[in-house]
Fold each of these.
Amino acid sequence: MKRVNVGVIGFGTIGAGVVKILLKKRTLLKKRTGIDICLKKICDRDFSKDRGIGKVPQNLQEKDWRKVVNAPDIDIVVELVGGIGIAKDIVLSALKNNKIVVTANKALLSEYARDIFSIGTPETNLFFEAAICGAIPVVKDIQEALVANRIKSLYGIVNGTCNYILSKMFEDTLEFEVVLKQAQKLGYAEKQPGLDIDGIDSAHKLSLLSLLAFGKYVPPETIPTEGITNLELMDLLFADEMGYSIKLLAVGNDTKQGLDLRVHPALVPYEHMLSSVEGVFNALYLQTDEAGDMMFYGRGAGRFPTASAVVSDVVDAARVIVSPDVPSARQEIEFSPRLSEVSCRYYVRFTVVDRPGVLAKISGILGKNNISIASVQQTERAKAGSNTVPLILITHEAAEKKMKKAISEIARLDVVKKEPVVIRIVDL
Ligand code: NDP
Ligand code: HSE
């Protein structure tokens, strides 16, 4: 039986999960693949910490990652250190040393795609199933099961932390800050939660999804990205009254005018499957030319769900080592695709003083910018102690540029007392 040796670098949340599965399931994997996948080294700075998986044999422990990426008898390097510092050196050195690399590091892959994908080729020497939607096999399905399709659009709930916060705000009628604190206590949200709540993690994943689904690479920092920090409970309640939930979506459309990529909160109609994705779960909805529409759903994070995806990549990498001549369906990557302007319907919440003429001022500016109002809603009276009321407008389809211009003009009116909340409505 062929044997393939693996080195896991980073023995943290996911690394320890991968180690546990590789040790526990070695015989099962041998039976299922005909390959003996042998964990040869585990690398971390500190082996005294309790990783929650019991003691690992002394002879597997290594503190210097260089020894793992340079070891002649290691075939597959699994990078689970995270971040874009040392992880970049690990991935690039391992690829240069002709190792196959498996990683879950969406930040690194998306930010350094040009460096990494010039030597790392998906399905050949670079595997990253766990980087997008954790346990859900979206990378493999896009690359393999959907290989005969043109993917026209994708809509993803790809950040479990944000989805948990939005679900919990609505379910328990709590404000954002309160739920964020709870999520941090429960370990769902990081102490520094910016990557998640500002939408950056979703932009990293969207950048990779675009590469896989459309063959087009857009750096994450150039993807228009909004997080969920300015949403208030009342937005979720107003949306509910109108038949929508609010989700942080990663959206990609491959249009004739160019590629439309964006991350933002969106009103999703209750009739659509995406609106029922609750809590820490992830989902990806694809519109394809041959297979039609489909949705993937499952756990996007967490030790064992993520480790399950990493191990499946290790198995694929082992198969490449054992049968290197099987061709993979590679697609060329376009590195500077043209981006398009979008238009959609909008939900806008203004916080305004409760007096005659306010609506006329606002609708005048919208009208001047060619934006047509579909409906208006205002609570009857300002609450005691406050002279402002929320004014909710739903617009007909409007171009993004015009919308931004109108909103910034309205925000400067003396009757508007807070930054307007603008949420796109997705018509799926
Ligand atoms: P952790 O921080 O839990 O684990 C990283 C480990 O690597 C830590 O033990 C860290 O040690 C160690 N490490 C850091 N620098 C070095 C070094 N120079 N040499 C050796 N070891 C080092 O991260 P996670 O396991 O949560 O995440 C790993 C990757 O998986 C990330 O890219 C993340 O984005 C991705 N991912 C994570 C998910 C999750 O649910 N957690 C889900 C999907 C993807 P120390 O603690 O001392 O810094
Ligand atoms: N912080 C990420 C999330 C982890 O909340 O989804 C998985 O990539």
Amino acid sequence: MNHVLTAKQYTKETLEELFTLTDDIKNNPQKYAKTLDGKIVAVMFYEPSTRTRLSFETAALRLGGQVISTENASANSSGKKGETLEDTVKVLQGYADAIVIRHSSDTWPQDAIKVAQVPILNAGAGKGEHPTQALLDVYTIREHRKTLDGVKVAILGDLLNGRTIHSLLRLVSLYNNVEVYGLSKECFALPQEYIDMLNAREIEYKKCNNFDDIPKDVDILYHTRIQSERFEGDFGKEEYIINKEVLNKFSENTIVLHPLPRNEEIATDIDDDPRAMYFKQAHNGLYVRMALFVQALSK
Ligand code: CP
């Protein structure tokens, strides 16, 4: 069954298969307009979302499928009455052909999979993983520079709690001759588990102290928001802000990505710079999620 649970499940080859399909969907959307004819997708979001929920729903609709959805499952579903996610999955699979879930638990996909009889798509698991975001991130990088072999990526922001970062590193590490640089406040440093994962794939994690430590010809500046919903207390605002002055120190080929929503970490004065690709990145999420539904639900 074609579940999407973790970035760990992908190889370079399966990524290329997905991205080739995504390219075709993006270039020939009409060819796929009836692919989900007669299929219903259930969308359960226990945490807030704009892009992921609405792009998954749009993806199903653009493929000719139908959607059943809760806007705020933590308040409006029977999760509020104490129903476990496993019980919810057992019920929804009697209604729908695939289930898309976002939940605050880091480990919910492992629980859901024990009972799942239809494809489950992970739309965010606590501070663990956000694999479909990483897929659209890598797709966007591939569109920009054709391959991720030899890519130099700088990750910034909340590297501790940012699930998009965790999934992205797993995918990026599949490619050859990758360089990874990290710049964050110390309280949001990348967990050792991900440094070990990179090292096991012979990628050195280069921790930076300021923007000057990041090579000027870095391919990707990938910034993230401080995930204030994930911790108690006040750790202050982001120190490392990408604005026009900072971006202009980097190469004309350096692109800026961000999973969005942003706070102060990316200044709006770079929005019109062609290197600022975060809105294009969000748009690519639609096509990648269409491709994931095609893989999960078409024969
Ligand atoms: N990137 C992302 O997950 O955005 P949303 O929270 O709006 O879905």
Amino acid sequence: MIEVTGLSKRYGTYLAVENVNFSISKGEVVGFLGPNGAGKSTIMNILTGYLSLTQGTVTVDGFNVIDNPEDVKKRIGYLPEIPPLYIDMTVKEYLNFIYDLKKVKFPKTAHIDEVMRLVQIDHVKGRLIKNLSKGYRQRVGFAQALIGNPDVLILDEPTVGLDPKQIIEIRNLIAKLGKNHTIILSSHILSEIQAVCKRVIIINKGEIIADDTPEALSAKLSSDRSLTARIVCSEEEMLAALKTVKGVKSVVCLGSKEKGSYDFAITPMENADVRAAVFERVSERGRTLLSLADNSLSLEQVFLRLTEQDNSEARRMLGNLEEVLEEAEQNDLDEDASETKEEVEE
Ligand code: ADP
Ligand code: MG
């Protein structure tokens, strides 16, 4: 649906976007994640044909943004960072105005009514936009993007400045629209992207440094996939007991950090969830599990780690960690193989 190849954008001498490549299929909901100034709005403005590009090719549904801007604009509904609202108009007047501007062909009243129902603003259609709350204004912004039924929605920081309740409402609206639209959504907030997107493109200093599912990204970057268990027990006994729990790869005692208890770092085998089994083993032994914590990084931490680095360093981290994980897996297999051999010998 959207193909971007070798895209660069210069503002004067400043290179804001550098050699960006990605493609988005029909129906995908993709998040652009990056700190302020990363280049998210610049890329979005180029996709929508509102900003020229310095180098590269961008096509939407096969139409080139430079050669066929009208065909591209017809397919895209755009909600810019600051929605282009005319606040002295009523909601209905404004949407009628947008309808005319976009030269939409659907039956006018029915189409506008349908859009207003979809974003739930029909009950405020007679109100002046300037008298609406920020959350409602944002919905009017969504409505203007939806006029003309575009296949693609480009939403630039759609929840900025909203309160938590409004954020949830807008998030639900995006999830609803995601069922029959291709959506690109930008944010500098992780949870935002995680909540609605199955794919995240991390943009930093004008470059793409990662493009993956939220889960894969945290898995790649969290070399530490261990759990920490705090157990009231004796050290030797519990060490032996934990090592034989199904799915556990290794256990190390971290010492005693709370009187009467020991902390154990438990590393599970690839993809194994050993929490329930650890709990059961501890209680079988008549011991008390005080806490069980997951040491893997949240996506928030992954994002911070990546964007704190130079892009080359961030890529190295992503690349290397993949290697590190592969190596660890290989070692696992080797260990398993040697264990089997020993058993046979016994
Ligand atoms: P984001 O949306 O990720 O916050 P932007 O795309 O708005 O980032 O900006 C990327 C970089 O380009 C920033 O350093 C910004 O200052 C710069 N920039 C954006 N627009 C202009 C412009 N019109 N002229 C010069 N520099 C700009
Ligand atoms: Mg921006």
Amino acid sequence: MSTPIDSGAVAAAVVGGAPYLQLIGGEWCPATGGASFPVDNPATGALLAEVPDGGVADARAAVAAAAAALPAWAATPAPQRAALLRRVAALLLERQERLATIMTLEQGKPLAESRGEIAYAASFFVWFAGEAERIYGQTIPASAANKRILVLRQPVGVVALITPWNFPAAMLARKLAPALAAGCTAICKPAEQTPLSALELGRLCVEAGAPPGVVNILTCQDPIPFSDTIFADQRVRKVSFTGSTEVGRLLIQRSAATVKRLSLELGGNAPFLVFDDADLGAAVAGAMASKFRNAGQTCVCANRIFVQRGIYERFAQDFAAQARGLAVGNGLEAEVNVGPLIDAAAMAKVQRHVGEATAGGAQVLVGGAASPLGGRFWTPTVLTNVDATMLVAREETFGPVAPLIPFDREEDALRMANATNYGLAAYFYTRDVGRVFRVAEGLEYGIIGANDGSPSTAQAPFGGLKQSGLGREGGSHGIDEYLEVKYISLGL
Ligand code: SIN
């Protein structure tokens, strides 16, 4: 048994010292009025840092700074914008260990996952550095001999980027990198649970040479004054948000007043289909990776695992054995695979979902309860005898809970998989090439993992159908979200 990590000492070493401040117009500043709020460590509940509790005045100052910086940044030649992005990526990788430790302290995920997330964040800066250099226009044959039609792609303008707590560096990188690549200036608002990773990324942007006002980072406990200010201001031309579908619906309403563009990465309810002809070992490994990464707190994680009857028992036994072997604990400890949930509300939701399922007849193969460690730790859980009416099958649990549901025919699996208003990610395992195409085409989801439990990557368009969102992040599509199309009709 290894010696338990002293999280307090680690925290003092990496986040102690200089206080965290907001980044507005190139200056590090406290909130107007001086208020602050605490950020805690979900593994221990201990205070990690105080950060400024920004309000309306801070949001207005950030919009003014971003608007003032816009003309020069939009006019900066693309290779120079790309070079800045590459420097940010290099700094992320150079400081990977420190940044990963801060992420684990504020978010809870195992250190190995935090290291992976820093590399994932850096990959968006690298990818969009390349995209910055490929913002091509068009010429279109005109209908009159004395005319020429030219199409330009120009930055949208000032953008507001609102990011979640589950991937505090990567989700910001996935928005900020294309925004900067396109020539936009940004006001970033990280989730109140995990602002430190965003402030650290802001520091790297400044160090890499981002001019004042190009990247602004605001922290606040109550997002309402921030969003009221952002949505009322005509200078903010776009909002990109990752979070719940409930909040996404509100933002759609709010955007009407000033007709802002929106990109929304919202909730999911991912189905994971395992067919009789699947490679069982690969399917179990894919389900483990998809389900238990970040303690099940990802929008793309397998929420419902449908297994064809012929392979059901073997899959359930192998998957349960691996889930039983997961080590739960403080993510700073090397052997830990599953960290804490983010807060008490997350624990209560998991408790409610598992409680309702077991009361309705679901059987617990593994786990089924909070961890004996106490606090915000939940034991990885595998449930069988689940039916489609249960909360675990209808709603995103956002925790380490895997409900298994048998099916008989391909068409039954597709019908059950699509029976949801969400459409972010779906997965399936089969060795039948015809089925690969039939099922991939039949699933009403924006991201399909076909024999792949970890499809997220900077090169591919990430986003959902139905109530899982609008727009795409990553890939060559990701930069389009930050570009306007303008055409010039030129008379000769
Ligand atoms: C998410 O949970 O929204 C993002 C996960 C990912 O990028 O893989």
